[in-house]
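Our consortium's second objective concerns turning raw sequence data into structural hypotheses that experimental partners can test. To show how far this objective has progressed, the report includes one record in full. It was chosen at random from the queue rather than selected for favorable results. The single chain below, 176 residues long, was entered without modification.
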Amino acid sequence: MEPMQRVALIGCGGSGKTTLGRRLAAAIGTQITHLDALYYDDEWNKLPQDEFAALQEELVTADTWVIDGNYAGTMPIRLRRATHVIFLDLPATTCLWGIAQRRWHYRGGQHNETGVYDRITWGFITYIWGYRRDMAPRVRSLIAEHARHAQFHIVRSRRAANRLVNQLVEATTNDQ
């Protein structure tokens, strides 16, 4: 397994991107960037798409990075530079449970790490429920088109995610 340098973490809300990203970023000695924190302000206002894309273009020029988030419209920017792509393709029930746990932890307040306020709407719940049907095929297509050079890992359970992270951390630690 190749050592990590630039990691694109993709997956449904509640799939565990932030938790995984934190561990991977620590292993390669870099910061994690949460796209939600770039895209939304404290009031959930969206950044204009061209500014959002420009920020990502700048981020991916670094030698090492971990970026978590979906945003299919700008995903090719990250995929073209990633050395590793991790797609968390977990069941909707697992993701909904992750959202419930996050909600309980932050009590609807501001997420300490991302700076984004925890917000659950009916639209978000239906997005999670339909992610595998509606979004995942598009994500896989984008990965196939823009990240053929990268190591691709698809994760379908929390246990598999932990196993993969341990393997990647070990490979990276042994290489340093």
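The partners drew two points from this record. The first strand starts at residue 6 and ends at 11. Residues 6 and 155 are 18 Å apart (CA to CA). Both points have been shared with the crystallography group to help prioritize constructs.
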